[in-house]
Design brief:
This protein is mainly α. Helix content is 54%, strand content 0%. It has helices spanning 2-7, 12-25, 47-64. The two termini are 25 Å apart.
Length: 70
């Protein structure tokens, strides 16, 4: 399941959901940070394929202006 998610890169439904979450809770002072992926070291054997996806997610967040909490 993870491989199917990360192999496609950042895709529309994920970005739509992320944009909604950031718009809904982005200004909340109780949120310290956003974590686009959890425990990447435990993603064996797809870890190497997940790293580019994570880099894309962080780059997207920086472009959108959400980097301070990422």
């Amino acid at each position: 399941r993870v491989a199917a998610f990360v192999d496609g890169g950042l895709h529309g439904p994920w970005l739509t959901r992320l944009r909604y979450a950031l718009a809904r809770w982005g200004a909340d002072d109780a949120i310290v940070m956003w974590e686009p992926i959890n425990e990447i070291d435990m993603l064996q054997p797809v870890r190497e394929r997940a790293l580019p996806w994570l880099e894309q997610a962080v780059a997207w967040s920086r472009r959108e202006g959400h980097a301070p909490r990422l």
